[in-house]
Amino acid sequence: MSEVEDFLKVARAAKDAATVLAPLPRAPKDLALRAVADALVARSAEIVEANAADVEKARAGGVSEAMIDRLRLDTGRIEKIAAAVREVAELPDPVGEVVRGSTLPNGLELRQVRVPLGVIGIIYEGRPNVTVDAAALCLKSGNAVLLRGSSSAYSSNTVLVRIMQDALAATEVPAAAVQLVPGQTRESAKQLMRARGLVDVLIPRGGASLINSVVEESTVPVIETGVGNCHVYVDADADIETALSILINAKAQRPSVCNAAETLLVHADIAGEFLPRALTALKDAGVTVHGDERVRAHGADVVAATEEDFFAEYLSLDIAAAVVDSLDDAVRHIRTYGSGHTDAIVTRSQRAARRFVATVDSAAVAVNASTRFTDGGEFGFGAEIGISTQKLHARGPMGLPELTSTKWIYTGDGHVRG
Amino acid sequence: MSEVEDFLKVARAAKDAATVLAPLPRAPKDLALRAVADALVARSAEIVEANAADVEKARAGGVSEAMIDRLRLDTGRIEKIAAAVREVAELPDPVGEVVRGSTLPNGLELRQVRVPLGVIGIIYEGRPNVTVDAAALCLKSGNAVLLRGSSSAYSSNTVLVRIMQDALAATEVPAAAVQLVPGQTRESAKQLMRARGLVDVLIPRGGASLINSVVEESTVPVIETGVGNCHVYVDADADIETALSILINAKAQRPSVCNAAETLLVHADIAGEFLPRALTALKDAGVTVHGDERVRAHGADVVAATEEDFFAEYLSLDIAAAVVDSLDDAVRHIRTYGSGHTDAIVTRSQRAARRFVATVDSAAVAVNASTRFTDGGEFGFGAEIGISTQKLHARGPMGLPELTSTKWIYTGDGHVRG
């Protein structure tokens, strides 16, 4: 069979499975998830063996040890993956929730009820744990899932999906509800992006270039996730100690994640007092500052920033920095260079906080708090499939309800329209 | 200037206007809408004059009188358009609504708040009243709007937009928040479909071919609306009188709209009793039935149905009809041929109703009620921008809240992540 036929077979099987899975209530879905968790632990030797092949191939290909560590699975890590699946089973089921409802003046009973989306495609990189995490979240929310991971993890992903399917086969959830997109070529990813009518939504999880290419090429609706050029704006009325602790936390506590800060903006009126201390604190935290001219006046170690620096999602111990003349200039800077993820203001002024919150157009706005809190776990969602930076359907951390649509149901007694 | 430059100028102006409009509270938006309504009435002579030019051109082009009637504006119709704008002003403002909120365990105050989408593009056909209706709904929900109507109504639309802009100029809502896409060529519509980054969402309003071409060509996220191949399924346990009245209402009360029924499915066990009466009632209502072999056995006037008939959105006094052997077969038929708009079951069986509601995958499912109730007005929304048949963001009738996104706001006291 050709790669296209292979893909269509898998996608149609997922679609059929979705129609069986969608109306299932919570109990059989939770049982299925626990069966998956048990199977992953019981068959961890198979997983470790398949993973060793991926690791060997990566090492032969000269992949860095840091990347290899992200790829590697051992029994401890597999137990953690299984534990995460059990946690998803514990979460409330979003399906069936009545979102709105009323009795209309004519007596029709109207309800808007959460239903699964149908078939969700996930395109992702690196870590094979995403294979299981994403599948668990999709199943729990009543969706079938088509997984397209990195070719570097293809052996691991193949075994993980086979184990999940085997476990599901003994449950009410159809085994075909979890599928790995066959093939490792660029073409197989394209199939998934063009499967309008078979796939209801595509969620890319990975770096900016992966996400951009999916957005450009996909005819299936996409939920953009995760690119974060987050700003910390230190207002004229900021408390200096608060600003310093938020800045260092947002930048350096975990620089490799999308909710880490990438740009510091400082109001001109406080720059003289704040910047010398901030630059020292950043230096002590190992951070390289890429500053505009007005920032460079306050520190010898500041590298000259180019315009690219202000667009950058470093994901490293680097930060761009600029001095602005007003809160509105800070907002304009964020609108121009930001990615619409999370932007923070540090201020004691109620008026400044209100204005910043009202005019910054991002998924999350933090007032006197680190940008690092934009996270499904921190928000209390229990699990997160990604952080949406688009405005349609879902914006910000996406939990289980964001993996659903709704259906209107109205019930009458022979009602006709006059 | 080239057409591309013309378009970009207009789109950028709309985007700038959106940043001013988004944080405005309800009062200035309502004042602006009332100013628009007043101006439309006061300047109706200008509108009638521009409209006469469109009508003359249409007549010279040999357009049917029915189409010309849809195009025509007179003072009475302009007053109705203005009244609709005043009604939108009376509706609650969705912007600022707190959708969810809590205090997190660490004391952070978390709020998810409705915010405008930004810039909404509307591509539509025929009636010039859509120009004003769509603009009013977008402004009320804090969005700027780029309007791309039919070239047949270009003179009318140009004057309507100019009058709205003139009225807005004296209010807090920027005049540039309402814009007509310049030019009448196919290219000008394409500009709008490719304006990713400038336009946040595109809503096509019109027939299936318009909607499909927008879905295919657009890189801007699209909300599909309005194609309705709605089904009435008469279950084995149906009350015959109820089934007849729902069928005739759904098909014949207003056949030109998307929530009218286009296909009748009848359970085999009730076909012998129901179909002879149904075919007579449909004939009396002037409806032509396109039936499968088992339907044709019950009536001499039934035309043989092709597979296309079961896909068709007739929007006329025609209906496709088939006999099915089970409720599940009816659902499979709806999944295969339907458009995911509205499907109705007529049954006395609670079990059948539950199964139909659970397994039909459409924006709305009606139980013992006509499909004609799927409508923003009937649902109590007060206004409707269209009926979404897609699953992401909005599904079913779209009112003002469906023209918004959300923003997460969290407020702390120097909170950092440990």
Quick overview:
The structure is a homodimer of 418-residue chains. Chain A is built from 15 helices and 16 strands.
Task: Give an overview of the whole structure.
Two copies of one chain form a homodimer. Chain A is α/β, with parallel strands linked by helices. Chain A has two domains: 236 residues, Aldehyde Dehydrogenase, Chain A, domain 1 (3-Layer(aba) Sandwich), CATH 3.40.605.10; 144 residues, Aldehyde Dehydrogenase, Chain A, domain 2 (3-Layer(aba) Sandwich), CATH 3.40.309.10. Chain A is built from 15 helices and 16 strands. The N and C termini of chain A lie far apart (56 Å). The mean pLDDT of chain A is 95. The interface between A and B is large, with 66 and 66 residues. Strand 16 of chain A pairs parallel with strand 13 of chain B. Chains A, B: InterPro entries: Ald_DH/histidinol_DH, Ald_DH_C, Ald_DH_N, Aldehyde_DH_dom, G-glutamylP_reductase_CS, Glu-5-SA_DH, GPR_dom. Chains A, B: It is found in: Cytoplasm. Chains A, B: It is an enzyme of class 1 (oxidoreductase). Chains A, B: One of its GO terms (molecular function) is glutamate-5-semialdehyde dehydrogenase activity.
